[in-house]
Structure formats: C-alpha cells, structure tokens
Amino acid sequence: MNESFPINYRPASYWHASEAILANVKGEHRRQAISNAIATGTVDELPAGLLADDLPVELRRLLASLHPSLMGGEYLPDAHEHEVEIARVTLPDTVTCDVVSVRARPARTGIAYRIVDEYQTVFRCRPERTKLPLTFRQLIRLIDTTVDVANGYCGLVVGMWNYFVEHCGQNPAERPEAVVTSDFYPDLKRWYVCVAERWDRERSLPQKQ
Fold first, then answer.
1. 132-177, pLDDT tens digit by residue?
2. Domain boundaries, the chain
3. Apex CA 104: angle with CA 98 and CA 107, to 5°?
C-alpha cells in the first residue's frame, strides 16, 4: 500500500501556511461548509459567525437544537497559543459526530504534540515532540500508536475498532466509520479508507460502499 502514498512527505511548516486557515475551526460540519465555500469562491456568502474558531453560544445552541450531529467538534478544548490541528478523526456514525483532534504547537525544542477530544479523554502519543514537522509516515504512526489511557487501547482507528470488538462485544460488521482528515496531509483520508478496507477483508466482511 505504501507505494501509492507520499510516505516521506513532510510539510514545510504547520504555521504561516495556507493549510492553516481552517486548522482551528472546531466544528466538523462548519469545516466542511467552509472548505466547500473556498472551493467554489463563495466564502463571502457565509455568516461571519460560522467562520470563527468557536461558535458563539447562541448559534451553537441553535445548531444543537436542529440536530446533535451538528455539534461534532464544537466542544473540543480551546487551542493553546500558536497551536494548530494537523489531523482529526471524525466518527460520523455517533449521535454527536465525535471528533478526536491531533494538534501541534511550537516548543523550545521543536514541535510538541497532543491529542484531545470532547470528553476530556487522556491520550498518550509518541512522539511527544519532534524538531521538524512529521512526515506522512510519522503521522500515521502517531495516530496508530496513541493510547487511550482510560480504556487502555492503542490506536485511534484500528485500535478503537479492535477494542470495540474484543472488549465491548461489538459485531465487526458494525464497526463505526472513522474519517481521518488533514489539511496538511491531503492523502491521509485515502490512507485510512484503504486501512478500513483491509480491516474488513481480514474479517471476510463485505466491502462498504
């Protein structure tokens, strides 16, 4: 699978780059709407409140009243100073469209990383710091080796699926969809689509459309 992906690709920076425009917009549905507006040149038509990193309380309540899935990502912790999101794992099958955010911030020794979600889950990731931005391969390794300390499983995608099956009794055919995206690593979503297909094949499951 590696041959069709830019395994050694490394962004020049996580800051002062066009990819950082949406990096701290919390809401998953808002990010999609803004991305679509950028692509179609209609950003000026979006309400100003939708473009902010955080939704105003009144607007957040309004969207929540329409459907809880519109809250996906909106309750993520605030970013630290100069911190940006470099990847996220979105679970669209959950009622509130849960999001796990992979973040990077400048540190005295280079770049520091942390993983957060909307439930104050404690995650432990490796590496915690690097001198340069992660390569595509290193980001995948970070995602696949991050530990959910409370539940004790390793891996934000495959590890989560295995945990649900092996410890929660979930039917493998009902694994939750995990959409992994990054403005800095455009091929990340496609990588985890392939990972999901391989996970299903290993369990003789029909391929999801």
1. 999 999 999 999 999 999 999 999 999 999 999 999 999 999 999 9
2. 13-202
3. 150
